[in-house]
Amino acid sequence: MVDSNLNKEHLVTVVSEDRETPCWGCGLRHLHPPNAPVFKCSWCGAITDKYESKCEHKNYWWRHMRDRCFVCVLIGFILFVICGGVWAVYPVIFSISFFCGIFHLTITGILSITTVLLFTLTALRSAGTPPLIEWGSNPAVGKKQLENYTFCRYCSKPKSPRTHHCHTCGICVLDMDHHCPFIGNCVGAANHQHFIAFLISVLVSAMYVTIISAYAALHIWPPLTYRYLDHFRAGDRSLAWRALQDVAIALASSAVLLSTRGLVLVYLFVSSISLEIGISVLLWQQLCYIYEGQTYLSSLSMRGGDEAGEKDCKNLFRFFGCPYPVLRFLPNFWNSPKRHEK
User: Fold this and answer.
1) Cα–Cα dist 54/155, whole Å
2) pLDDT digits over 305-320, tens only?
3) Of the listed 152, 169, 180, 186, which one is catalytic?
4) More exposed terminus of the chain, fewer Cβ within 10 Å: N or C?
5) CA-closest candidate to residue 161, choices 21, 49, 47
């Protein structure tokens, strides 16, 4: 019995060296079990991983070149749509009416300048850097000053809870949503508004290109030759399928006779519709995340057990910079608090 008590006392009082680890945030040393390498500092609130080591970026040059290629392709496509659309559409529009041509040329200039400007702001502006904060020394770090901060092993500096490290850009980004290769930049706190505005501008421009290219193509399209469509109009419904085939064959045979201008109009029409579908899905996804008060990366971390943000239309108004006095008068239909009558 005496030996067992001595053994128990020995197990309680003796502490191994590997259980004592300094906090990277304030420098205080903490004791923790050997099977729990990750611990949270009781003073500054920083989270420390004692097995965390400095890492280096790999394939950074390849990712950088890939993004530059995507940016060049996107710039080339934008310039082709602008220049090719003006070359193919506006001779037809001006032949119909001079006033109509001036009107649509003005709209084209406004949409083109807006889209290129928003693309430039989104691609060249910094996505958002985390706030600078004192760390590493106990006198300089106050209580709970680094609450839930982690240490970025790539940048060798503190990383706030809303900050993520981008392996392509090689920096930590505040409120990072995702890295977009088509703009060659991350989407974060500093350029997220410009990214959403760019998507809206592209969607509106694509819809305008669809309408104006279809309108111009109808005026220069060669005449169609039908075989069964007259019978279908006379009321013979048994020839409906043949009539549809006849229309498709007539369009295909007349497309062979199209000029270069007509082929460019057809390409603009098809590509603009494809672009509208892709941009609409991306824009709807982004607006849903903003409505839920989160980003794409935060939604992924939320699946791991984190709490969800508050879903409210006011999140959309705050995101687009609507002032607080206006938000106070907006009704909250989705998350109105429940009232209990006594």
Assistant:
1) 9
2) 445 567 777 778 788 7
3) 180
4) C
5) 47
